[in-house]
Amino acid sequence: MAATLREVADRAGVSVRTVSNVVNDFPQVAAGTRARVQKALDELGYQPNAVARTLRRGRSGLIALVLPELDVPYFAELTRAVIEQAAAAGYTVVVDQTDGDPVRERELVMRGNRAAMFDGLIFNPLALDGADLRDRPSSTPVVLLGERVIQGGLDHIMIDNVGAAGLATRHLIDLGRRRIAAIGDQADESRQTGRLRTAGFTAALRTAGLEITPELIRPTEFFHRSDGAAAMSDLLALPDPPDAVFCYNDLLALGALRTILSHGLRVPEDIALVGFDDIEDGRYSTPSLTTIRPDKTQIAKHAVQLLLSRLEGDTTPPAEISADYDLVIRESTGS
Amino acid sequence: MAATLREVADRAGVSVRTVSNVVNDFPQVAAGTRARVQKALDELGYQPNAVARTLRRGRSGLIALVLPELDVPYFAELTRAVIEQAAAAGYTVVVDQTDGDPVRERELVMRGNRAAMFDGLIFNPLALDGADLRDRPSSTPVVLLGERVIQGGLDHIMIDNVGAAGLATRHLIDLGRRRIAAIGDQADESRQTGRLRTAGFTAALRTAGLEITPELIRPTEFFHRSDGAAAMSDLLALPDPPDAVFCYNDLLALGALRTILSHGLRVPEDIALVGFDDIEDGRYSTPSLTTIRPDKTQIAKHAVQLLLSRLEGDTTPPAEISADYDLVIRESTGS
DNA sequence: TGTGAGGCTTGCAACGTTGCAAGTGATGCT
DNA sequence: AGCATCACTTGCAACGTTGCAAGCCTCACA
User: Fold this and answer.
1) What is the C-alpha separation between A64 and A145, in angstroms, rounded?
2) Which of B248, B144, B92, B214 is nearest to A118 (CA)?
3) Which sign does the torsion angle of CA B251, B256, B261, B262 carry?
4) Inter-chain contact B258–A285, Cβ cutoff 8 Å?
5) Is B54 domain-assigned?
6) Which residues of chain B form beta strands (DSSP E)?
7) Which stretch of A33-47, A121-135, A216-230 has the lowest confidence by average pLDDT?
8) A vs B: CB pairs below 8 A
9) Is the residue at B55 inside a domain?
10) What's CA B110's distance to the chain center, in Å?
11) Mapping DSSP to helix (H, G, I), strand (E, B) and coil, where does residue A270 land?
12) What's the CA gap between B212 and B201, in Å, rounded?
């Protein structure tokens, strides 16, 4: 098992170099020799050693996708899109999850191509910020995903969170709701997603001439179902509960939905609900979930293309690309 | 950037070998030399080249986890568990998804350690069977996950599907339900999961003296929400619809739930529902989902430990390990 | 002063592959 | 016959690392 070029060469009675030429389909090989070598290759079941090849060529054909949490549906769905895009370009994606742990993020991202065997990195940071990333010792190209504001210096694919949050909020306003809550604000300065969406939320309220009520803007530590359920409980305990809620992602919304229904209230009649991400779960909940749909395929496509162009030596200044999004209206706002 | 041992050695005025000794913390290095080398290492920001190291050492510290679909919550949650277990042992997991495509499965699994840079493989096949796998040319250790019956020859972690399906079915019988349906049977001989669960289902009915009604056993192509929704529509269109449904995974159950509720029926009053897998979604649906909970942590732990023991040269005969499971009763069967 | 031991450092080779440039032998042309 | 040409094949070196065993130097002791 595990034949090397050397062994194949001995069996075929040629030099190692000639076997390599056959394996790599170089034209300058006589038909007879090629056949003889091919026979030996088949008989020994030769498979090129990827590690040696990578060392020699300086390219592994692997790109790493580093995400906070794989079992968050948004990331799982994004991962699928990235794998598909990369496969189309002949690259294999390997995925790793950081749980947003700064130590782990740093470990994976900072040690560059020398340490890991990846040609490039697509990275959605939770804890690391621009300063951390700028002085990476490595020269492996990196493309960043997600909403953390990185002050320049690196390629970055994002969506317009302020605009998208505004769109979601306006939809609730247009339905005639006046006491609108938000779930998912984040106090922590380093978590930009929540802050940007809150900015869009309040801007939309202000534009509509509605009052901004701090008690209706609920922070959460994470964006999980349990956070949404807990925040919704708090909102329902208010003397004057909201008649609509904008949740900063679909998991929060699904958690909130569960809480609302278990209090005997109806969605959307009593409380209208909008989420964010358009994960599959939200299409099958009852009621199904109105949500902001970021174009995940586009995000993946941009990320992979940008990374590959860097791999091919593109040295244009770092790009900031905004992906499209739209509002998908479903039952939770009463379609 | 990307300093090599050679460059560090030149800067510190020592040999390459000595730098290597410092990097690897060999004791036989004089304190002064060590300090000087360490200084050079720091100044150049040296990071060992993992590819060269792997080539030399024959170990990469990477294990691959190959799964059908990453955006199926069960697999996403299992992935988290595997990553955690492997990290505890100092291994990094890279994940790849096959979509159950035999070509892709073969490509990833058959070309062995020579081709990929992984020390071992944890593989959940959908399409490949025992015969395919046995004559792998590679010597990379593999541990199989999932319910496909592999006729010996490889390590395999599974759960007792027949028993688990029987447990779920008995629960419905104990509730007094008499017209019990199943969703997720699979005609395709190669998809064992559905067949095993159907075996457990019918065995439980038979034991309880209930009749087996073929029209109540609905096959599906996949185990996705949409398959569950469609199958449930068919069941509701029967002249005499069921009063309980056992779905072969939670996604099927969530799809079925959506269909039931949208027909104005109640769960569990009109139809009781049991799923399988215990994904997080089922804990937050309304009603929450009664389900079979396989011990994912245990599966991951066994898989990683077995793989690592093979890596260390364990040559005991291939193991077949059954992981634990239990029944979690929630609202969908009326707790 | 010679010898051995011990502490520290080093050169060589190898992991398996491929780029480079040179090598071989046969063929064709003058 | 002599020489250039062509088609094909090959050896060497290198990618960056580490195992092995030898080497050097100093020091202690006789």
Assistant:
1) 13
2) B92
3) positive
4) yes
5) no
6) 62-67, 92-97, 120-123, 142-145, 155-159, 180-185, 217-219, 244-247, 272-276, 290-294, 320-323, 325-328
7) A121-135
8) 151
9) no
10) 19
11) coil
12) 10
How far does the CA of B89 sit from the C1' of C8, in Å?
34
- Both A229 and A300 in one domain: the answer is no
A333 band by pLDDT with thresholds 50, 70 and 90: very high
Burial class of residue B268 (count of CB atoms within 10 Å of its CB; 0-12, 13-18, 19+): buried
Residue with tokens 């007792």: B160
pLDDT, mean of residues A143-159 = 82
How far from chain centre, in Å, is Cα A51?
A: 28
Give me the CATH number covering residue A259: 3.40.50.2300
CB B280 within 8 A of CB B274: no
Q: Examine the domain organization and report whether B154 and B302 are in the same domain.
A: yes
B261 shares contact with chain A (CB less than 8 Å): yes
Chain centroid to CA B44: 42
pTM: 0.90
Domain membership of residue A92 (yes or no) is yes
Stretch B25-45: mean pLDDT? 91
Domain extent for A178: 161-295+327-333
Cα gap B108→B105, rounded to integer Å: 5
Q: Which of the four pLDDT bands, split at 50, 70 and 90, describes residue B98?
A: confident
On whether any CB of chain B is under 8 Å from the CB of A263, the answer is no
pLDDT digits (tens, 9 = 90+) for A102-112: 877 877 776 65
CATH of the domain at A10: 1.10.260.40
Phi, psi for A135 (deg, rounded to 5): -95, 45
Distance of CA B279 to the CA centre of its chain: 13
Judge: B117–A60 Cβ closer than 8 Å, yes or no.
yes
Per the document, the length of chain B is 335
Determine, yes or no, domain membership for B53: no
CA of A90 to C1' of C14 (A): 32
Looking at chain B, the whole-number percentage of residues with pLDDT higher than 70 is: 93
B residues 86-105 lying closer than 8 A (beta carbon) to A: 92-97
User: Domain total for chain A?
Assistant: 3
B146 and B69 within one domain? yes
B291 and B195, same domain (yes or no): yes
Residues B34, B85 share a domain: no
pLDDT in tens, A259-283: 999 999 999 999 999 999 999 999 9
Q: How far apart are CA B40 and CA A90, in angstroms?
A: 38
Q: Which two tokens stand for residue B245?
A: 């449904």
**Smallest Cβ distance to B284: which of A1, A225, A280?**
A225
**Using an 8 Å Cβ cutoff, are A271 and A243 in contact?**
yes
Among chain A residues, CA nearest to B50: A115
| Token pair belonging to A32 | 């007879």
- Tokens at A253, concatenated: 């919304």
Å separating the CA of residue B88 from the C1' of nucleotide C15: 28
Q: Would you report the helix, strand and coil content of chain B in percent, each value rounded to 5?
A: 45, 15, 40
Label the pairing between strands B92-97 and B62-67. parallel
pLDDT of A16: 93
Q: Tokens at residue A199, please?
A: 């900015």
A80 touches strand D (CB under 7 A): no
Measured in degrees and rounded to the nearest 5, phi and psi for residue B143 equal -120, 130
Same domain, A120 and A81: yes
Average pLDDT over residues B141-151: 80
Question: B274 and B202, same structural domain?
Answer: yes
Say yes or no: Cβ of B54 under 7 A from any atom of strand D.
no
List the B244-247 sheet strands across, edge first.
B217-219, B180-185, B244-247, B272-276, B290-294, B325-328
Cβ atoms B300, B81 nearer than 8 A: yes
Q: Which nucleotide is nearest to A28 (CA to C1')?
A: D8
The verdict on B19 and B165 lying in the same domain is: no
